[in-house]
Amino acid sequence: MISKKLHWLKKLGPGLLFAGAAIGVSHLVQSTRAGADFGFGLIWALVLIHLVKYPFFQFGPRYATATGESLLDGYKKLGKGVLLAYFILNLATMFTIQAAVTIVTAGLAANLFGITSNPVIWSIIITLFCVTILIIGRYNLLDKLMKLIVITLTLSTFIALIVAAINSTNTYSYVQIIPKGTVEIGFLIAFLGWMPAPLDVSIWQSLWALEKQKDKSNEFTPKQAIFDFNIGFLSTLVIGIFFVALGAIVMYHSGETFSAGAVQFSEQLITLYTKNLGQEMYIFIAAAAFTTMFSTTLTTLDASPRAMTKAFDLLSQKSYKNMYWFWIGFLSVGTISILVFFQSEMGFLIKIATILSFLTAPFFAIINFILISGKHTPKEWQPSLQLKILSWFGILFLIGFSIWFLYTI
Among 14, 270, 300, 379, which has the minimal tally of Cβ within 10 Å of its Cβ? Predict the structure, then answer.
């Protein structure tokens, strides 16, 4: 019986990598703040954005396993300009996104492990550690490690939530809130923009699915890939609700103002949780927070270079040896350079990256839908009518939301 359960877990892969990449700043920071500022009032937004983005993320592993190609191969078939647009957009945002997740992870590490409180030094240590993991095991080690990380993350967050609910004597309103005013609307836009992740992560999914197919000991069919993705995607929704609930129970009406600094923010976050839940809960809060951010740092450090390598090969119509390692080195050096020389501008850089990720969501949604519904995908694996209707709704929502975003900034 145990061996069968382990075999089932072994079949999972890219879906949990998606969860590892998605459950990061959007959950630990944004979801917690949503609960702290609005109580349970933004649960509707969390559920809605998952529903809206679901088809376009799912099309990544669906297309890859149905055709044996990544979404980037499909983009090239739709026109070289589509692929070039992705390459430029990813080049413009990859360093800032990596720097953002690394600095938050570094802040948590500084509070958990001591040694030094300098977030740049911790960022270098974490980056080198992640690169070492990828050098030693590449996809296979990443696949296995992410199973352990996501399970640890889920259990530790759930335990912290249960203890918070038991210890709390407050009563809560579950009335859903539509934010009003510039500041509240601005937060809602940021909350939805990176929740559960930017849509270009669907490309990472397709690349990871192809890597999973190389494991001949486990057949990874389109049906299995969709099931695998659903597990990972559901994890991002459930853990998002966990963090909103933790923020609502522990921080709502606390009057706490979070610092913009990574180390200070991490210290405030963990201190506030342990103060309300008890010092004995420190290990669970710390484990939940650190695994949340470390998983994101690790998966993004693998995925962006993997995507840039594939895009570059397709654009140049030539495969270059060790190009993946070139992009990992380039991303690592660029990330550390930003943290060393532009740390004071991180807020502005993250805002720019968020805006670009948010405004390009309709682009990726439309391209992914055209690709999965057209002649390049086998008929039997094209989306059902229900999924097409959900896709049309999602595209209209993302376009409308982008227009609203531009109107309010």
Answer: 379
Q: What is the pLDDT of residues 312-371, one digit of tens each?
A: 999 998 888 889 999 999 999 999 998 888 776 666 666 676 677 777 889 999 999 999
196 neighbors 22 (Cβ within 8 angstroms): yes
Using CA atoms of 25, 26, 27, 31 in order, give the dihedral in degrees to the nearest 10. 120
Tokens of 396: 């209209």
- The answer to whether position 1 is within a domain reads no
Total domains in the fold of the chain: 1
Whether 5 is in a domain gets the answer: no
pLDDT, tens only, 3-43:
444 455 556 667 777 777 777 777 777 888 888 888 898 99
Give me the CATH number covering residue 59: 1.20.1740.10
Q: Is residue 10 part of a domain?
A: no
Q: Are 362 and 56 in contact (CB under 8 A)?
A: no
Structure tokens at 243: 């963090």
pTM: 0.84
User: Cα–Cα distances in Å, from 394 out to 67, 166, 204, 387, 388?
Assistant: 24, 38, 20, 10, 10
Angstrom distance (rounded) from CA 17 to CA 39: 29
